[in-house]
Amino acid sequence: MNTSKTSRTPFPPWIKKRLPSGGKLHEVRELLKDLNLATVCQSAHCPNAGECFCAGTATFMILGKHCTRNCNFCAVTSEAPEAVDPDEPRRVAEAVVRLGLRYVVLTSVTRDDLPDGGADHFCRVIAAIRERSDARIEVLTPDFQGDRKAIERVVAAGPTVYNHNVETVPRLYPVVRPQADYRRSLDLLEYVAEIAPQTATKSGLMVGLGEKKQEVLDTLADLRQVFCRIVTIGQYLRPSEGHLPVDRFVTPAEFEEYERAGRDMGFRAVAAGPFVRSSYHAEEICLTGEMGHEHRG
Asked: Each residue of 241-252: pLDDT tens digit?
């Protein structure tokens, strides 16, 4: 991978996006500030944050703002993690109620410093939401270092969707995700499918980091091999000069090709496009996956 490329390379026309504005955007930002809550939308510099905020939705990032890992694509800071906040579950539930959410996405920084990786806190947040709302819940978890007991705890809390991203093709892991393990991520998804077949498993990856087309197709095949039902594919965008450069901008036609390939492989729902992110339009993708399940009997 050529890390000397600059982020000043002009964006192609399909990458440009109008930023929304309006009262709802301000309302969501103020609510999050009032409840002292973090969202991955803000922490990861997501290009869809304004759109989602204007629609009254957000992906809550629990367990603090600092990650114990240092992935070279991610804008979330890698610093000494904060103490787990015992009041956070209540505040997330309050936000869900105030926003009137029907579908909630919960994610977190990686907390390798905690004995269970933060699994118990995921469960507490889910329980707090369930006490006050009938919203469906999707979790996007770290790999918990492969700890099956931690995975079992989150599964037992009953999320509608269990999401864990492989992020990139296996060849690029040493550069993109040096502290992660491709096989460990696949094993997590396979284990969730094994112990909770009623729970939809989901994963996502970025393209434009130097991967080859066949490597993406092989990764999709690996995900299907472990019974992953839903997959998202989006363009990597460099958060700052200190992060990995964009190797190239994948064209809309190529994203369409990946989407067709995923459907042909048997994924119940595939979302692929320049601005697709793991939790972008998560409710719609979940519903599409369920309709796919009905058609397949």
From this structure: 778 899 999 999
Confidence of residue 285 (pLDDT cuts 50, 70, 90): confident
Query: E strand or H helix at 23, and its extent?
Result: helix 23-34
Domains belonging to the chain, first-starting first, are 19-296 (3.20.20.70)
Yes or no: say if 232 and 272 are a contact pair by the CB < 8 Å rule.
yes
**Burial class (CB within 10 angstroms; exposed 0-12, middle 13-18, buried 19+) of 80:** exposed
Confidence of residue 92 (pLDDT cuts 50, 70, 90): very high
Dihedrals phi, psi of 232, to nearest 5 degrees? -125, 145
* Residue 234: Cβ within 10 Å count: 23
* Cβ neighbours around 58 below 10 Å, total: 26
d(CA 140, CA 51): 20
Biggest alpha carbon–alpha carbon distance for the chain: 51
Q: How many CA atoms lie within 13 A of 284 on its CB side?
A: 9
What is the per-residue DSSP string for 67-133? -SS--TT--S--SPPPPP-TTHHHHHHHHHHHHT-SEEEEEE---TTSTTTTHHHHHHHHHHHHHH-
What percent of the chain lies above the pLDDT cut of 70? 81
Strand order of the sheet with strand 59-62? 38-39, 59-62, 103-108, 136-140, 161-163, 200-207, 230-235, 269-273
- The burial class, CB within 10 Å (0-12 / 13-18 / 19+), for 201 is buried
Distances in Å between the Cα of 27 and the Cα atoms of 38, 57, 97, 284 are 15, 11, 14, 23
